[in-house]
Design the sequence.
């Protein structure tokens, strides 16, 4: 439900941020381990419907989480907290994983953007944005749950 300029709540129209807000374990798409703001930014730039991005990210997250130890052993972790570990992976990583997940080219691009936006948000919060922007020129990002 959204709120109009006059304060009316109109049923049937929901904002992406409302859909991503935690409201229990109802099985609805959450967007994996990706920050909600990063999802909204990626959805604005992606060539897929914003409503499908959280579902795509959930599918990608399940894939990544099942291989967490491989990422920890094989890739550079540039940030970790209680919930996630952020890894720099080779260019083309999401193209390969997208094939495994049977994503279209546009879906792969949307997932790639969301993971990159997550890193940018982490970088801004940790005063490492320039460092991470430079890394994104030669690598991609995979955010794995801890």
Sequence:
């Amino acid at each position: 439900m959204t709120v109009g300029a006059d304060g009316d709540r109109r049923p049937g129209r929901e904002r992406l941020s409302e859909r991503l807000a935690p409201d229990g374990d109802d099985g609805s798409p959450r967007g994996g381990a990706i920050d909600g703001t990063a999802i909204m930014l990626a959805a604005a730039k992606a060539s897929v419907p914003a409503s499908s991005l959280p579902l795509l990210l959930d599918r990608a997250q399940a894939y990544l989480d099942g291989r967490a130890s491989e990422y920890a052993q094989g890739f550079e972790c540039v940030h970790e907290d209680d919930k996630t570990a952020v890894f720099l992976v080779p260019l083309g990583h999401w193209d390969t994983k997208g094939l495994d997940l049977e994503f279209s080219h546009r879906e792969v691009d949307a997932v790639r953007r969301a993971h990159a936006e997550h890193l940018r948000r982490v970088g801004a919060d940790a005063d490492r944005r320039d460092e991470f922007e430079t890394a994104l020129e030669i690598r991609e990002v995979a955010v794995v749950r801890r």
Remarks:
- The helical segments are 16-20, 36-45, 53-65, 68-74, 93-101, 105-125, 129-136.
- Strands lie at 2-3, 9-10, 76-80, 84-90, 139-145.
- Residues 36-145 form one domain.
